[in-house]
Each structure stands twice: as structure tokens, then as C-alpha cells.
Amino acid sequence: MKKTLVTAGIHGSEIGSVLTAREIKGWIESRDLPDVEVIPEVNLEAVENKQRENPRDEKDLNRVFPGNEDGTRSERTAHQLFQKAKDFERVIDLHTYGKNSWCVPYMLTDLEKDYNRNFCEKIGLKNAVQTGGKEGQLFIETSKLGIPSIIIEAGGAERYRDELEKVKDAVLSFLIEDYKKIQEEETIFYCHYERLSPEEEGFFEPKKEAGEEVDKGEPIGLLNEKEVRTDFAGFILGMKTTGKYSPDDESVAAVATRSSS
After folding, report:
1. What's the start-to-end Cα distance of the chain, in Å?
2. What's the CATH number where 236 sits?
3. Per-residue pLDDT of the chain (261 residues; tens, 9 = 90+)
4. Which of 155, 161, 168, 125 lies closest to 28, judged by CA?
């Protein structure tokens, strides 16, 4: 059994994660590490078109795992990757936020499973967030098999190099013994997070930044010049940038609450 599978490009619009995975793959190949496999462009046709879904069937690949070998293009891709992932001891799936939004680096997984919680501590990024996750996601389905599995979110679709560099360094520090070590930080575990998605469409202007704390009821931004507030105190994982907002396909912010343990 191989040790670690690193994937990116499940969503083709998240080019930053693809570029980060390519850099990680270059390091792994230069060290000839057979126990690690990196797939930077899982959803190749979507990456080539820089769109979230596969253009052949318009399906979100990260909603159809474990897939179907006789299904649509996305379902077949999911089946092939899932069969491969079952042969690994752990899975890291790299993602970024979409266009016109960005986030600080954070790990997303089912922290109620001890093996996922321990995995987060070994990676060395500061923020780990609990999620039961939507069915059909790679990390959810492999985690069900007892395989430590996480998503790492960082940056935005096409920029925020500093955030992506932190992810690259953290993953490589975990995979390569003599790689430059990142400054170790104690992992902060968040027991819950929510994406704030007001029903009204319009122009959004942020008043807070990703990486900042927010109090209950504190405004995080203006939507059509009206305040958008949180229902609980927490840590802002990600934030939409200034511009047009549509509730059908995005949120204005993601806010997490800290675990007491």
C-alpha cells in the first residue's frame, strides 16, 4: 500500500491548487519517492476550460464519488480515482476558493474521526475545521473507509500566492523529511463553520478580512448598502471581494467557531 495521495484540479476553475500541486509533484519526482503520488489535474477537461464542472456532462466531480465505471465522464473519472485512492494510507485534496473570493489556509475534514484529527496535527497548518461534508466528495468517501483524508483550502482561484506557498511548504514538510521546515504552530480546531449566503442579489462590499475574528452580530460587509451580520462569534476563514454577488453560486463569507477541546 502506498502512503500518500495528493490531488488537485477536481474543480477546474481552481487554478491555484493545480499550480501548487504541480510544484509539489516536481519536488516529489526530484526525490524519487515511490510512496507518494501527486495528481495535479484530476478533472483535466475542466482545468483546460477553467470551469468548475466537467464540460462533457456539467457535473461537479466532487459530488459523484465513489463514481460509476459505466456512468458519465465525471462519474467514470470519480470511479477511477476512488479505486486508486483506496490503495493509499492517506489522502490530501487541494482546493482554492472561487473567483472573486479568497481564504486563509485551512484543513477541512471530519474531526470526529481521531485519525483525521491526528492527520491535521501532522500537516502543521494552523486551522482545522470540522465538517460532516456533503456526500460524494472524495475526502468524505475515502474517510468512510478509515483512510485519513482532508481537503486543504487556500487562496482564491487565480491569485493569493502567499497562502498557496504556505500550503506547498506544509505538505512538502510532511512528505519530505529534509525539506525546509515550516514554523510549527499549534493546530486550532473549529467545531463548526457556516457559509453566509444572503438571499438578496446585489453589490457586496466587505468590511472584514479573512483571518480576522468577528463578534456575534458584527457587520462583515455591506450588500446593497445594507449590513450583513453573523449570528455567532467566530473566525473568518474566507471572504468575498468587492463586487457583484449572486446567492445561487457563492457566499459572502465563511465563519468558523472554535472547539473547546
Report:
1. 33
2. 2.40.50.100
3. 679 999 999 999 999 999 999 999 999 999 999 999 999 999 999 999 999 999 999 999 999 999 999 999 999 999 999 999 999 999 999 999 988 899 999 999 999 999 999 999 999 899 999 998 889 999 999 999 999 999 999 998 656 689 999 999 999 999 998 887 666 678 999 999 999 999 999 999 999 999 999 999 999 999 999 999 999 999 999 999 999 999 988 899 999 998 554
4. 168
Selection from 41, 4, 2, 1 nearest residue 176 by Cα: 4
Contact, 151 vs 9, CB < 8 A? no
Range of the domain at 62: 2-186
Examine the domain organization and report whether 231 and 180 are in the same domain: no
- Whether residues 161 and 211 share a domain: the answer is no
Instruction: Supply the pTM of this predicted model.
Output: 0.95
Nearest of 59, 190, 37, 38 to residue 136 by alpha carbon: 59
How many CB atoms are closer than 10 A to CB 81? 23
